[in-house]
Structures are given as C-alpha cells and as structure tokens.
Request: fold
Amino acid sequence: MFSSFTSEHPAMKGHYDVIVVGAGPAGSVAAKTSAEHGLSVLLIEKRQEIGEPVRCAEAIDVKGLSDFTEPDPRWICAKIRRAKLFSPSGSCLEFRDDDKDVAYILERKLFDRELTRRAARAGADVYTKTQATGLLVESGQVTGIRGKQLGDDFEAKARVVVAADGVESRVARWAGLNTAVRREDIGACAQYHLVHPSVEKDCFEFYFGRKHVPGGYAWVFPKGDGEANVGLGTSLSGSGYDTALTCLKKFVAWRFPGASVLQAMAGGVTITGKLPRFSSGGIVLTGDAGRLSDPVTGEGIMNGMISGRIAGKVIAGAVASGDVSAGALRRYDAEVSKCLGPVLDRNYRLKNFLMQTSDIGVDLGFRAAKALKVERIATSRLAEEVFSSTTGNGILKLLFRRASGSPT
Reply:
C-alpha cells in the first residue's frame, strides 16, 4: 500500500536512470517496464494515495487489457457483453456477445494501485505525496527534476524524465513541448456514480442527440449491484463545465429518476488527434500528458499503458546506447505514432463528424444500420470498429455515408 510516508521510508537517491512523474496507468507501466530492463527508476505521485481521486468512467477493453495482465476480480466491478446505442429520436441499436466479455468496468483505485505495486516489485522506488516543481536542464537537455516531498525541497538527476502527470501536465510545458489544443478539442465532461434499480448489469448505454447533450453523447457504464457511472461529454467550445453538469442533471432525472448519487465529478479531457512531438532531449510524454486519450470515447487507460510500455523499452535502449538526446528519443515518437496514431487521427475525424452532424443526420444513420441488420454484429466487432487501427471500419463508414446523405 502506498498511502503515506513514515519516518522509516528509505531516503530518495540523488540520481536515477529514469524519473517518472505521475503514478497513473501510463506512469506505472513506464516505471515497471524500465525497471524490468535493469534501469534504476523513481516513480513519484503528488497525491497521498495512488488512484485517488477517480476521474474517468473506468471502462477498459478486454482484448487490450490481456496484453498487460490477467483480469483480477478484486478490481473488476462489472463485465460487459452488450451495448445499446440510442439515436436522438429514441431508436435503439443493440449489440451483444453471448459467449465472451468485451469490456470491464474497473475499480480504478484498486487497479491503479496494483499497477504501481508491480512497478515497485520490478524494482522502482515509489514515493507518494511527492511532486515535481520544475525540471533540471543543461544545454537544452532535461537532466532531472526539482521537487517537494512532504514540504521539503529536493533535486534528483535522471538520464530521462517521463511526463505521466495527466491532462494538466506541467512537466511537458516546463520542457517546452507544445501540448496546447484548441478549445473545441477539449471535452467538458460531468459524471455521477449513482445507484438505481434500472441499471442493466452487463450493458453499455450510449445516448446521442441535442436533447441530452449538444455536440456529444451520454453514457451509462454499470458497476454492479445497481450502481453505474453515468456521464456525458461535450466540446468545451461554446459550452463549459456548467453546461455539462446541467445536461447531466437533466439526463439523470430522465433516465434514472430518483437515483441516489454517491459521487459527482466534472473535468476536462483532450479529444484531439496525434501531436507532432512526444519527446525532446531527456524527456518523453506518456498518456494524457501526451494527449493520447481517444478522441471519441475519451478513454485513456489503454493508450496510457501502451505509451508507458513503449517509453520503458525505448528509454532502456537509449540508456544502454549512452544516447538520450532528442534525436535518440525520436524513436519513441515513431513507435507511438505507428501504434496509436492511425486510431487517434481516424477517431478525431469521427469526433468532428459526430459533433457537426444534425440529429436528423444521426437518425438517418441509425435507420440505415437497422435496415442492414447491423445488430447481428457482435459487440466485440463494434469495439474493434472504434479502437482498432487495422479493421476495415465498415460500420463506421456506413454510418458516415448515410448520416451525411452520401450514396452507398
């Protein structure tokens, strides 16, 4: 458990091969991978407890998760086999998989802590309640961090610093990496963790249409025992967090009248395409710090872990070669772009399409899908359409053409 410091906590070393700032999924996987390659690693988290506060809908793709770990009932709240998509007029497309789980709803606090434990077991030094306050830079190259630990200032040197400090990343800005995005590429999100008897235990629900949310959609992700994460997201452009919260209150009153709200949250997520750069001399950006969340779903757990693993492998090679310059770390940019770039750019176009399409257009797309009996397609195939960079995207292309009025 990494909840707090004690006086017996071992003293931090003054030099590491890798310093990772932020102990979310991206940071913990980067730390674990680096340590497994024999590097000395420092992983710091500014909060007192790993995984707090929870700031996402907690869903993750089963297929992608299997590349990192076996599922553990301790951090799985619900298993998803069905998905319902509702058009603005109320038409429903239902997809199902009767023989396998497609997604999990996580208990993020426990999941994140398990990832951090694995980093520690691999050899990383983990410190909570420790924040970076600046970077050490020599001749334009990042060489470590300045920080504060329980009120005391410190400096620690590193061959490479990994920015894993989330969507508000200060580390990226300190390094001079441009991660700014347009206002319309920031999603304003609001979510309730609620209890209501009508929550369907194994089913995602997605609601489209300006009746519920302008330029976005609402979701229902079950957590078991009648609990669910219910939220919505819209572009920050022309609206804001107050608009998102107002829309959420109306949506919940309509879909779950009389629900008990256990937790409420609001915040932003980047919904942009791939950045031109993810690294510089002595530094790489992972997860939300690198704007790697999916532009359509806002999901960042999987992309964060993927980028963290790539970072650990590339850094290990760079340290072994004795070259951690901007040129050497460009390999990280190339690997991230190859692995995640096609999906990010394609789903960025899909996000813009959905935001610009009228309710009538979306209804036309649903009507076409119904006529072609796309509901016979398994939920797993639908997930591949959204998340895979290699699938043919037939369903999405169909909906694009029909909703825009183009001939098939």
Q: What stands out?
A: The chain has ten helices and 18 strands. The first strand starts at residue 15 and ends at 21. The two ends are 56 Å apart (CA to CA). Confidence is low (pLDDT under 50) at residues 1-8.
